[in-house]
Amino acid sequence: MSTSKRQLTEEEARRLWERAAELQAEADPQGHLSDGDSDVPADTATPGYAVDVVRQAALDAGIDPEFVDQALVEVRTEAEGGRLDRWADRFLKDSPKWLTVRRTLEASPQETYASLQRVLPNSPYEFNLIGTRGASPLEGGRLIFEVPNQVGFVTQGNSTVFDIRHHAGILEIEVSLRAVGEDGTQTELEITAHLVRARRVGFMTAQGVGAVAFMPAFFFTAVFTGAVLGLEIIPVLALAAAGGGGGFLGATRAFRLFYRWALRRAEKAFERLIGAIAVDVRTGGVFAPRGDRGALPPTEVANPRR
User: Cis before residue 124, ω within 30 degrees of 0?
Assistant: First the structure.
């Protein structure tokens, strides 16, 4: 994986270290790190922390490269976030920044990888492979798929794709697999998506909804306080502004609930997608869509754009 030459700050280095350890612990609760794993190594040659130095130290502590690479992507994305992301963080509070679903399949990584090639790019899903990250897909690397836009004048798309893209606002998903079990005949399949765009869109949409709700609340309060209560213009305007503000806050908070509902829909869609892959694995792909040209050899990926 290529890395930026920009040095990590102390906070970014610590976040990278801690997040990589968290990801590994989530994937392998029985695993453990080497002694001294809480210390972030310093690169004394520069005022910051070299990415390669922190990355190598994490590997030396027993953290798998795939988790280090994923943590680095998260840390970089968080660091590049601007004012809009900070506003979205405050508005959405404790909602997740990543959506991840994992499941262990009774199949080898090679069989699971072949199933991915039969299921994801074909009908009814039609995900488009646009890149890879990290090592080979069979060695913990990640496949990056674009989520298709299946909405036209009449919605005829797949509900799983609709929930991912149009409810949750997710445009790309990352898929990875790794061998598990004593003999490596099982595979842990993971689908994950970074929600940075979804959070931004959710925040901006909520403000728009709030602005729309402000005006009727303002005018209704003004009419009620002026015509019914007979108040003077200044108290009427003050109360109308308060009423409009209440309408704005109520609408934005309602939209926050909608956003969380949309994420639950996307999470269930990830589960359905993994379920479709599991069925394909069990049936050996004999029900693959007509016109499917078959899976690629397990060590190849079809012309990804990096």
Answer: yes
Query: Starting at the edge strand that comes first in sequence, how are the strands of the sheet with 186-194 ordered?
Result: 98-105, 186-194, 172-180, 142-146, 128-133
C-alpha to C-alpha distance for 286 and 289, rounded to whole angstroms:
9
Predicted confidence pLDDT, tens digits, the chain (306 residues): 444 455 777 777 787 778 788 777 776 665 555 444 445 554 434 456 777 777 777 778 788 777 787 777 777 766 656 677 788 888 888 788 889 999 999 999 999 999 999 999 998 899 999 998 877 888 888 899 999 987 653 445 578 999 999 888 899 999 999 888 878 789 999 999 988 888 888 888 877 877 777 777 767 766 666 665 566 676 766 776 777 677 777 777 888 889 899 999 999 999 999 999 999 999 988 877 654 444 444 444 444 443
pTM, entire model: 0.69
Could you give the count of Cα atoms lying within 13 Å of 156 in the half-sphere of its Cβ? 4
Helix/strand/coil for 27:
helix
Give me the residue label for tokens 């080497």.
34
Cβ atoms 277, 189 nearer than 8 A: yes
Three-class SS of residue 55? helix
- Cα dihedral across residues 207, 212, 217, 218: positive or negative: positive
Could you tell me which of 62, 64, 69, 89 has the C-alpha nearest to residue 1?
A: 69
Q: Which of 194, 75, 68, 50 is nearest to 135 (CA)?
A: 68
